[in-house]
């Protein structure tokens, strides 16, 4: 039976057997027989009452009569006589039908009532005769008085109406017959005439020839018989007939309505007052008991308990059987068994139960009564009438009856409902649908299926097919539904309406509501859609909202899966950006729940109650000496995000001093130049520094008495502040600059602040004064100078760093372009700094800064939740223990033994370290110089753009990607850079470790430590620079732990500054190792790939990118100079373009002088100011920002010309190094 | 496109025999209503009155609805719970009130009730806590099928609600 596609499931059929009633039983006494009969009749009566067919038919008749009346109304019949006439005829025929039915029904009602009364009378007489009562049945006839007059009138009216109708009917019939008669008569007449004419003719022609013709004429069959006119209907006879019929079937006028009521109020005569035979019968009944067997598909599956037969021949079971079945059931049978005393059991009857429809489920199935009867013959020796044997009520034995044992089982069969609310029904395909067709006419559900009920068309079709009576009240709701659904156009809504009348009362349609721009804007804002988060001041009227507000949002929705290459220039990066976006979204979703768990401490600040010791200390403090010149640091109060608004947050930048600013080179003119450019490196070192001691001040330095006049300009979010101008290469400003901070969309929540991507640019400029007095004569009376500024270098600090660090305090290396025309480093300072022999001369300039945010913001806290892991449970426990021990001793030193990978799983950190091959091109570049190779590798790593995790995964935590993921994403923060660099170094055969520690400005970060022959080198993986261990300007300020491929060493030395610690990890007193003798290294497999695969560098793509960047930057510079003409010097541009590849090849070292010479040779007439910028390529925006921050476009000399060249050098894995040379040229007069 | 702003607070509750009360609240609207901003439901803190017997929550309610019909005017349903010293929560009363339909500020008192169990359950409730609760919260604000319930009256929840209506006059609703 199981359909091929249907998996055999467990289905359940619930069979509820509530009880059994015998309508006849061998032990019935005569009275019982009558009682059963009475009860049956009464049930029938009740059912008829409930249906009230007679009343309904009368109403229908009335309605039809009314319809005919209105149809005959002369006022209305004007329009279409034919149609109304036809309708009226139909109505009339229907009236006839209905009347017949009604009369039949009324007659039945009356006979039933009569029978009930008759049976009751018989029963009463029986009771009287036998002098005891066996059943508590009692029939009461209630008389309902009626208004005699009104009743008589109604009766008469009814009869009259009927008579008139019949009369009409008959007269119609009569009319018809008359018509027929007339036609026949005419025919007959015509025939007669013809006959006569013939006769005449014949007479006239040959009368004697055919004498027999005359005789044939009147013969029947030959011609039409003369028709007899029909009799007109007689009113009196008809009325007589009607009255007879009414008397038979209807209540006489004025006769009270009889309402029988059957009660069980009578009392049964107790045993001791009964004759012996009756007592015997009662005893026999008591000995009998009954049980049922449930037979499923011909097999007994269960049986009910054995219950004694009650005196009223009812058995109550009240048992529910749950049948666990697999197939659609074939048959379901109950077998009724009877036990007499202790003798055997006999099968009384079998009851076949219908298998329920699939819509019938437990709890909703009605209890049904199924009748059964038995063929057994039982003769008893007491009052019991037996079964299958004749007996009689009459004393003389006449009028014999033979009754068989019969009864009703009340049960309900239904499908069980599973735990999830799904009925446990075998699939419908399993059932045979043959038996259903018979039912189709009558039952809508069996005809079109339960699901068809919701389909209006099907339902209407079925109603039309089955000629459903629209006036039947039981069909009322259905007809209404159908008429509503099919009226007008055949529109069937594809939904189910809960509030049906809603639509009539609506102010407007849904579409109108959804069209409202204001509501949409409000809704999107409250959903925190990124474009509309914290959208301020939504207009009150729709007309004030521009359509373009939604453009970005809609575009984003459209482009969700389209990779947009326009913004990214480079296809690969576009894909990566998309991928990163997806990873970010999925990770965000994972952490969203984890973030919601608040602790009490997150909400409540509880100040500690001061105890005695604190009080005492503060008392001592009163007596302490006041030292106003040595102020103490006071903790600032942290401000939470919610009570902030635009303008509340300020970025404070304290610029203290700078060292080693490049100084102007006295350039006399192009004639002196060749000599200068030929100076050797040694000469430069020995050269006497001060510029003012150089040969006589040239035309370039009319006022130039100083080396350099540097000032600092801080730009943040396009707000610019600058310090006063100081003098000399080691200026001291000691100035505080205040820059306002604006959060994106005015959203000052923690997550929003964390994802601010803006950078703080700290630019150092040289202020140059040019005398532009046209005439020497004016010099006496006034000065006319122009101030120009020359960019010297910059420091870039991401806002996120400041936000997480709360304050940044330290000395930073200024990022000075490799070629700074017109400037050179002042060497004398270097000589003074004798303590630092390692420092090479090419080392740059430094600036001391203090940056903080006012008021102090609360940085986001890391997620506390534990994440699932695939690590060994033991290892995880050991990790926790190790970290707890470390934190106990040195709470400030970080020790990340486990980290999260991109999928949010905890991974042991050493799994990230494994020797990985660097790109082969890099290895081939310097085959004999390991140090150069290392530097090149470090440079390669530093060319991968830096993107902090806190920005990409706002508010979550650090995620570590593996090196191949990192190279695919082409973006990552310190850890990824450090891991990749460390892996490269390991594969180069160096001893290398990951250093976890604190650095400026990054804060907690990762560096790489390598061990050379005699000393250690600290590599900054993001910049590619390396520092010796004892370098004072090393940005790494503290060391927390070292991580190698097979162990972690925690720094347990007293100091953590790299200057003061020993990096020898073999000393257990200085370094606490994770894996030791007690917990040996289990040989963890690496999460890194076996080998990194590098695609070769794509030169063509790089060239294309180069052109695009150049074009875009040129457009940008023109945009930034809206009020001036921007001219491009093509000659200079091409020179610069040739120069940039050289810079890449030498990584910005030692080409400056040649370049200057070249430039001067070609552009002798111009005063040239410009510099190359170098950065890794991620996207366009940072490049534009960098060019903007140099301020080249700010020159507004009318005759200025610009030059811009871009060079993109491709490295393997589409790592790109971008050089931008921007310059301004002013023609010398 | 009529709009309704409901701005106010659940001030507190009086008349409950239990102390340490908190209130879960929610706003139910018909299908014609659309929540533009604000949160539909929430829960107050547990307040233990120190002076007097009124528990103060001062829980803010700020909702902004748009509607296309009057059917299903917003109704506020409340559940007052009490927390005992063991941290167990038991029901103290259910209540509901319609958000007023005229603009302005309104002080509402929302009486509450709770289902009453059999005498055995009542006895248990008096000594160990617990007691019957509604299986489905929607019986609080829908009138259907409540006739079987036996309830006991609880205390009163006090609300201050301010109403702002907009554009109802455009659709013939004068207010």
Could you characterize the architecture of this molecule?
The complex is a heterodimer of chains A (1229) and B (175). Chain A has 1229 residues and is α+β, with helices and mostly antiparallel strands. Among the domains of chain A are: 11-21 and 275-415, C2 domain (Immunoglobulin-like, Sandwich); 28-72 and 84-188 and 230-263, no CATH class; 636-665 and 706-775 and 788-824 and 842-858, C2 domain (Immunoglobulin-like), CATH 2.60.40.150; 873-1073, C8orf32 fold; 1099-1227, 3-Layer(aba) Sandwich (Pathogenesis-related Protein p14a), CATH 3.40.33.10. In chain A, the strands form 11 sheets. Chain A has a 7-stranded antiparallel beta sheet. In chain A, strands 4, 5, 6, 8 and 9 form a 5-stranded antiparallel beta sheet that branches. A 4-stranded antiparallel beta sheet of chain A has the order 7-1-13-10. In chain A, helix 25 (930-942) packs antiparallel against helix 28 (974-987). The longest helix of chain A is centred in the N-terminal third of the chain and has 59 residues, at 148-206. Chain A is elongated. The two termini of chain A are 106 Å apart. Chain B has a single domain (2-171), classed as Immunoglobulin-like (Sandwich). Helix content of chain B is 6%, strand content 51%. In chain B, the strands form 2 sheets. Chain B has a 5-stranded antiparallel beta sheet with strand order 3-5-1-9-8, with no helix packed on it. In chain B, strands 4-2-6-7 form a 4-stranded antiparallel beta sheet, with no helix packed on it. The longest helix of chain B has 10 residues, at 119-128. Chain B is globular and about 60 Å long. The chains are: A alpha+beta (1229), B mainly beta (175). The interface between A and B is medium-sized, with 18 and 20 residues.
